[in-house]
């Protein structure tokens, strides 16, 4: 019989060997649920335990659990996975339970939680619960607080979820390799009172990045800065699902950053309030309004807004090279270069060759080009008015009137009411409004001439 002491023998997290598992039977481990779909899954309503308002993981899912003697038990499996970055490209990554990032773990403040972590990788690993308060021996730093989990072994972590908030999990073992390969996931601890800061829609996502050469599928793990795929939950636009909300909803979006650089996350059409960090909820008196919030490496931000205005509103990193896909960084700048003569010569050898970039790079979004196998276009995505010309860390918040409470289906493109869509001017150019010119200059006057200031002594007004 394996006792509780056997489980927690050693440096806080104890290995369960294959022999042990066979002795206690398969029922000793909770089921290791797996997911092979890259689509956003419906929120997991808690089947037992204390109630909470579940989150929606963009292009992800929530890990089921079992209750055993009042403890929530989860089973994570670290393993090689194949992740579709976007239609037309798949990557060979490392992750958990069939996905990268791994499934979101949702618990309630005060829950006692037991997580079994099985290692199916070719090297040792560990699990660090980023931002959690827990016993030191459960912190998951290989060599410091525990031995590494060897291949084929299962370790057990157990602690109480002591404070509500948004956290992450990832290895602290060969982490340059393992995190560059996609090993990470989200952890949500909900407040005891589900009415506390309740929202109608609660989305969460991790920002991650990869360096995958065009035509290949495995990330270059030694890359430090020059990544070519900037992703949301290991998905690049147009593979990132929209966030669908009903007009009038109070909406929360939780964003964690496990890339190697900061990301100024920007939302169109609405201002939001920063309400949370990985250190906890921001007190109401300390919150601030934004339309862009910068998220540094290893940080999380929770933002909230009221979805007042219908439409398809862009949501993206404001670093422009983070909203394009592979091939974007090494393409030479050809703007203003006359390629006519060389194009004629090349066409005699390669009849289908096209000169591109001499008038800017928009052609690369509008005109398909031959690409290496398993490679995404640099600028991609089609909208109701043509090529969107984005990639990477880009998606939309689709606000619609009259959606049901749990309806997350894509409503399609927004239909603009009459008089609310920018249009081409069809009149005579001579009738366009012009600014007045300053007499005798030929330059536009920016302000009308004003008399000099006159200050009255002892008075409180000026002319």
Automatic annotation (TrEMBL):
Residue ranges of domain Plastocyanin-like in the record: 85-192, 218-333
A single Pfam family it belongs to is Cu-oxidase_3
Q: Where is this region: Disordered?
A: 428-463
Q: Does the keyword Oxidoreductase apply?
A: yes
- Major place of residence: periplasm
Stored InterPro entries: Cu-oxidase-like_N (IPR011707), Cu-oxidase_C (IPR011706), Cu-oxidase_fam (IPR045087), Cu_oxidase_Cu_BS (IPR002355), Cupredoxin (IPR008972), TAT_signal (IPR006311)
Keyword annotations for this protein?
A: Copper, Metal-binding, Oxidoreductase
Query: What GO cellular component is one of the record's annotations?
Result: periplasmic space
Q: What is a GO molecular function of this protein? A: copper ion binding
Name its cellular compartments.
Answer: Periplasm
Family matches, as PANTHER family: FI03373P-RELATED, MULTI-COPPER OXIDASE
The protein's name in its UniProt record: Copper oxidase
Species of origin: Rugamonas apoptosis
